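As a warm-up, study this chain.
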Amino acid sequence: MTNAERAPAVGLDASDNEPEAETPAQLRRARWVLALGSLGAFVVFLDTTIVNIAFQTISRSFDTTTGHLAWVLNAYSLVFAAMLIPAGRIADRYGRKQTFMIGIAGFALMSALCGLAPSAGILIAGRALQAVFAALVVPSSLALVLHEFHAQRRHVAIGVWGAMAAAAAAVGPTLGALLTEYASWRWIFLVNIPIAAIVLGFGKSLLHESRDPHASGIPDVLGTVLIALFPALLSYSIIEGPTRGWSDGLVVAGFVLSALVLPVFLWRTSRAARPIMDLALFKERQFRDVNAATLLFSTAFFGLLLANLIYLQTVWQYSVLRAALASAAGPVVVTIVARSTTKLASVIGHRKVLLAGAVLWTIGCLGFALSVNASHHWVTHWLPWTLLTGLGIGFTLPVQSGAAVAKLPPNQFAVGSAINSSFRQLGAVLGISLFVAILGTPSPATVVDTFHHIWWVFAALGLAAGVVQALPQFRGAAARAGTDLTR
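Now compare it with the structure written out below.
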């Protein structure tokens, strides 16, 4: 029996019977559910980046190191990534509405814990717990949305949902700066509470319960641990390498163990009765390619997001709010173009749009590396590249969400989306870790050159994401050319 047969799919199941005709009232209701589900996804994805702008402020507040505080960001992304897929299976078995509501309520409670944290250790623990409940929200929200839409409209719903997730990650730093500047960094977390209250208030009466009658048991616990352990070990070694030394025993052990954990995870997943991930999904080339590109681009995106904010605050000596406003043009562009790029991808194909996004991103990163220096020239040396990277993000993140699941059967939309979101969060962990490792503790004389190296690295990663998308086309063209030559 294959994993596909053993593992319950997340999303739509045989009991989700569609009406033959869609009435205006049903369409209205579906749109309200889409708005509510998207808001739930928005608030949990917002917390992947909203903390970035307050990174330096929180560090001073707790008098801790950059490497230690990186775990405030990475703890959330690691646990989020590890829990997304089992959360979808839990939603299938115990009810998607119930899982969604518990996730939102728990997320609000853990946000309160983070906002009131008396130490960096408590904050890191709170972030990890916050991510557990955030993971419950994502697949259950998408499954609730898909349950309301007819097959011909589901790709539009997925596009809107994905665009909201991408917009949340993009606007997080600006919102975080406003809260930090005019209130306190603690409100970065406390602001989630009223948003969660709105979602819970409307969700109680608006959402309908649905579940998969064939779902049973819980996903493989060992697989869940292994999928979190791999990036955690890798991140530890990348972050600690510059300070401990790359030959340090713990650093080397982290690299070695992470290399060993990955094949163990794949072996366990191929044999578990209820695997954490259905490896059969990766036989679909588009799903496999888009997830590889998601990992690469997300590493570049989350790394650059943090790098630029810290550059503006430490090198150009901008305040928290001024740094966020100086970078706000990018998120504004993402918000404007996200919906349009998903529609464009459905017309001309996702590969062309993603390749264009990778090229725009790469040019933007190279612009930072080649033109930004210690002098403040925001209009000429910063703004153009912020706009280009914003366009690159808008052409990429929303489109990846839809393209990842486009070739999957409807009953695997949500599990496919959960896997794609996991790759995005793993990219966040790697991006932040790479940034911290490359930055190290530069002197005032070398800090600008160090950031130039960082921008070059993230340009290369963004371009690699585009190459992954373009390779199948090149292979296809080469095969056709070879066929023509043999005739």
